[in-house]
Design goal:
CATH architecture of one domain: Orthogonal Bundle
Structural class: mainly alpha
Number of strands: 3
CATH topology of one domain: Arc Repressor Mutant, subunit A
Radius of gyration: 21 Å
CATH superfamily of one domain: Winged helix-like DNA-binding domain superfamily/Winged helix DNA-binding domain
CATH class of one domain: Mainly Alpha
Helix content: 55-70%
Distance between the termini: 63 Å
Strand content: 5-15%
């Protein structure tokens, strides 16, 4: 796949200029920040998706398999997967359905809760996720930023996410008596 030629002007900088010209100076920097993050997400996701395509995985499917592979037994309740992946339950259900079809995971009845289902990584799923992770780590090792910039970016985005209510600081255990 050939890459498109770069534009001769930064469209986000031009949008910021237009925002200012039209009297929205007070919103111009924020508009630039939001659209920059959204465009960057598109670029990063495209690179990730290209890397995962040979494994028959989307990033959503990769995340589910990787989450299961991180567990001791390669299994977890659907409800836990939904909470950890922070996506709509329907999206997780659809992802799991496709992974079951491809024999990368299985659904099992929860041993203690007849209403709940477990998602279980198959041996084939484990092989696929380990190979896909090795390939994706090449992307993660070089996201296109200097190491210090990457660290700064993660800190800034974590602060934003925390202030937006995405997570809170973990509760510190009390000092021993």
């Amino acid at each position: 796949m050939t890459r498109p030629r770069p534009l001769t002007v930064d469209p986000i900088a031009e949008a910021k200029r237009q925002w200012t010209v039209h009297g929205w100076q007070d919103a111009a920097a924020g508009m630039s920040a939001v659209t920059s993050v959204m465009r960057t997400q598109q670029l990063m996701l495209a690179r990730v998706e290209r890397t995962l395509k040979p494994f028959g995985l989307s990033f959503a499917r990769f995340e589910m398999l990787r989450l299961l592979a991180f567990t001791r037994e390669g299994r977890m309740p659907m409800a836990s997967a939904i909470a950890r992946l922070q996506v709509h339950p329907t999206s997780v259900t659809n992802t799991v359905t496709r992974l079951v079809k491809d024999e990368l995971v299985q659904r099992e009845q929860h041993p203690d809760d007849g209403r709940a289902a477990l998602v279980v990584l198959t041996p084939t799923g484990r092989k696929v996720i380990e190979s896909a992770t090795a390939a994706l780590n090449d992307v993660f090792r070089d996201v296109g930023l200097a190491d210090d910039d990457t660290i700064d970016l993660v800190r800034i985005l974590a602060r934003f996410r925390k202030e937006a209510g995405d997570f809170s600081d973990p509760v510190q255990p009390p000092d021993p008596l």
